[in-house]
Amino acid sequence: EQGWRSGESARHPPMCPxxxxxxxxxxxxxxxxxxxxxxxxxxxxxxxxxxxxxxPSVPTPHSRDPPRRTxxxxxxxxxxxxxxxxxxxxxxxxxxxxxxxxxxxxxxADDEKANIILRAELVEQKKGVCRDVxxxxxxxxxxxxxxxxxxxxxxxQAVEQMMTKLKELEHEAVTALEKARVSRIEKLNSGKASVxxxxxxxxxxxxxxxxxxxxxxxxxxxxxxxxVEERIEDLMKTTMPVLPVNSFVEFVSTCEPESLSLxxxxxxxxxxxxxTVEGLVKNFRxxxxxxxxxxPKTSEGEIRNTRHTDRIEVHIEPADQVTSLxxxxxxxxxxxxKFVAKVPGTYEMELKINEQKLAKSPFSIFLKSREFDVIGxxxxxxxxxxxxxxxxxxxxxxxxxxVVDGHCIMVFDDTGKFVLTLGVYGDKVGQFDNPTDVxxxxxxxxxxxxxxxxxxxxxxxxxxxCVESFGKEGSGDGKLKFPTGVxxxxxxxxIVVVDDGNSRIQVFTMDGQPVLKFGDGGPxxxxxxxxxxxxxxxxxxxxxxxxxxxxxxxxxxxxxxxGEKGNGxxxxxxxxxxxxxxxxxxxxxDMLNNRIQMFSLEGKFIRKxxxxxxxxxxxxxxxxxxxxILVTDxxxxxxxxxx
Length: 643
Hints:
This protein is of the alpha+beta class. The protein contains 4 helices and 40 strands. It has 3 domains: 119 residues, no CATH class; 100 residues, Immunoglobulin-like (Sandwich); 256 residues, TolB, C-terminal domain (Neuraminidase), CATH 2.120.10.30. Strands 8, 10, 13, 14 and 15 form a 5-stranded mixed β-sheet that branches. Strands 16-37-36-35-34 form a 5-stranded mixed β-sheet, with no helix packed on it. Strand 32 and strand 33 form a beta hairpin.
């Protein structure tokens, strides 16, 4: 601009000659415009100049007129963004016009190239996203094919397993029918043979009678008359065997083909790691039903609320200390697991959903012990319980109590009310001298350990009479010395006697013949045993002086022992009477610790009486048909009911 005003010969704006090989001429690219900044918000218009006959404000290469001054405009770098471009022909020169400002096309193109490169990079990134999505589709397709193949294989396996099980059931059913056929045919043949024998005897009698009448003389007839009459009379009295079995046999199918199901197919995945277990924070106690709720969740973290979409497996250790483990599906799609623990302690629970472990599985569950409480006592109706010791209950709930200092047996009905007394002091049959224990042979008869008379007596509680007695003082086989306990073997075939004075156990037949003795020798010999109970094929004995309980097999061989001297849980101090409950747990009178303790059959401590319960001298213990526990308190002169 200064050059133009001073009239210099070069009156034209700076030009950049560019040779055009096509037209054999130079193109000129001019920058026309102000160098001042454009007002903020100014939106320029780009125009490409190609035609020489365009705007007169743009001088040609041969014009001597200076260009018109233009008002200040924005710098190219500030106004180019968002501008609209168009071409203007100015001979063979090219410029970029931004509003009234013009720029070099190369400069504008360089800026646009950068923008295009940025956008191309975005396109490349989008392309990468597309490739990732395509790979995800392909991966899902591959997994779908694999899962469908696996599912088909499992369907086939399920059918094969079902067929195998059906074959097993078929074999069992057919075998059972064949056994029934053989058994019934044998009974029919046996009955038939009996009838055939009777028929043969009748034929013989008939033939003899006919021969006697037709061929014998009168004297012979008279001689055999009585024999014939008696024989025929006997035959006529013969009872015909009744039909031992009938012919009716029918198989009733419980299988419903319409409801038969191999399983189910899932098309959405359960999030095993996100699934939860509710109820773990509760205070659990052994012997009481424990309940947990398993909540399967979807991969989106929502609780699955549809049924028949998951399979639950529950394993609890130690498994042999758990009963009634049941898992059921709820209407809301959750699963409820219930079980009862036999003993207190820590249990490990492993949970699986569709064969996969839950997060943090296995879980540790601690079940606390419970104490026995007194809920009542027997009503003696004013009769003095002078030193109650052994105690027994029959299947009807009738209770018999051996009263040591009263030298008798007191009987209570099923409501706990006193009914009658059996025996008095003495050494004659039916009399007692320190009866220490009692057990029921059946609902009407009892056996009594008559300690100081060195014998066992059998009484009928309905008549009050002694029906049998065996045993004499001594140390030989079958001899007794201060017997303190008596019970019946589990099969009801033998009488077991605690021979305290001889520190042994003796086993007798039901009529008092000795068949076995044990405990008086070996490293685990007994030292003044007091109580014994039979459970299944085991003898369980309280070894009083050794402060423990010892277990022997049916042959009298020592198996194991539990308990030791002390006053802690599971420790004993001169144990007396004992019994087992319906679950096989062992209840022991811990005499010097003034309590009752419960152990598992293996000897693990389970529970004890409350410390608030002041039993002065627990001697005998038994269970009732409804599951309650009766305990005799020798010094307290009471019989308590525990629960």
